[in-house]
Amino acid sequence: MLRVGVLGAAGRMGRTACAAVSADPDLELVAAIDPAAGAGHGGDLEGLVVAADVSALKEAGAEVAVDFTVASAALANATWCAAHGVHLVMGTTGLDEAAVARLRQEFEEGEANCVMAPNFAIGAVLMMRFAELAAPWFDSAEIIELHHDGKLDAPSGTAALTARRVSAAVENARLSGGSGGSRGHVGGHVGSPRGLADSGDELSLSEAPGTRGSETAPGVRVHSVRLRGLVAHQEVLLGAAGQVLTIRHDSLDRASFMPGVILAVKKVPELRGFTIGLERLLGL
Ligand SMILES: NC(=O)c1ccc[n+]([C@@H]2O[C@H](COP(=O)([O-])OP(=O)(O)OC[C@H]3O[C@@H](n4cnc5c(N)ncnc54)[C@H](O)[C@@H]3O)[C@@H](O)[C@H]2O)c1
């Protein structure tokens, strides 16, 4: 049995992670850590000793920690794990590039390993991969991401990453000479009225500000919808003459993230150093 501690155990994702770890016959939940637990948020954690500080991982003998906290706390938690030989599955988002670089160095130099993913939903990981594979064959790509109205950042990290990967896949296909034949030209037409001009259509420049989304990566625009009732959804639309391919993923519940979290928990002890994303774990 792999001994697991959850950081942010009283939060929305942390509670779901505690339940998923407890339900897995190969895992044992040994620590549930959250400074807010004493403030009445720990009701779902009955029967567990809920500690406020990451150091409780050591007392509990945790081999793997799962972090769903806040960016400001996640870096210190991760540094503690790296220094104390506890493997880490990092789900918290919002860490800047410098923080990620520091974590990479700490886990590559230390004894413990870390898997970090902006999206643990396996369907979302596959959506990004499928979009990347398909994009070089199309002329236009746009992304619509739709989230609950409590989400503060836009575009979502998943949409920004998808846009970068689609754009890079098209560029790589071009550089490797694969952009001829029936391949498309995402970025050549995308998000710009020039595409219309090229095709001989009437050129109109009367766009109201904001109506065309934002060009998050070269040639790929992202449109962000914030609506009460939604959870986390994304569509990648790929267009060519006479056809549209739509790749859509819906997270309808936080349970959608758990198979990816559990997979990472089980694999992280053997994934030496620092791993970003689930692609390697899924063999993609
Ligand atoms: N990677 C993914 O697939 C994925 C999916 C959903 C959400 N998230 C991210 O997970 C994070 C948590 O989301 P949430 O909706 O559960 O938030 P939440 O606000 O419900 O929970 C965060 C919890 O962390 C606790 N916390 C703060 N500092 C702590 C510390 N030092 N040690 C331990 N616990 C601490 C808070 O008290 C709170 O209970 C966010 O960054 C969110 O973007 C990631």
Q: Would you mind describing this structure in some detail?
A:
This protein is α/β, with parallel strands linked by helices. It has two domains: 2-116 and 254-282, Rossmann fold, CATH 3.40.50; 122-251, Dihydrodipicolinate Reductase, domain 2 (2-Layer Sandwich). Helices cover 33% and strands 23% of the residues. The chain is built from nine helices and twelve strands. The protein has helices spanning 12-23, 56-59, 71-83, 97-109, 122-134, 157-175, 193-198, 258-267, 279-282; strands at 2-7, 27-33, 50-51, 64-67, 87-90, 114-116, 140-147, 214-217, 220-226, 232-240, 243-251, 274-276. The strands form two sheets. Strands 3-2-1-4-5-6-12 form a seven-stranded parallel beta sheet, sandwiched between helices. Strands 8-9-7-10-11 form a five-stranded mixed beta sheet. Helix 1 (12-23) packs across helix 8, helix 3 (71-83) runs parallel beside helix 4 and helix 5 (122-134) packs parallel to helix 6. The longest helix is centred in the middle third of the chain and has 19 residues, at 157-175. It is elongated. The model is unreliable at 39-44 and 190-200 (pLDDT under 50). Nicotinamide-adenine-dinucleotide binds next to helix 1 and helix 3.
Number of helical regions:
9
Q: How large, in whole angstroms, is the Cα Rg?
A: 21 Å
> Which strand order does the major sheet show?
3-2-1-4-5-6-12
CATH topology type of the largest domain = Rossmann fold
Quote the distance from N terminus to C terminus.
27 Å
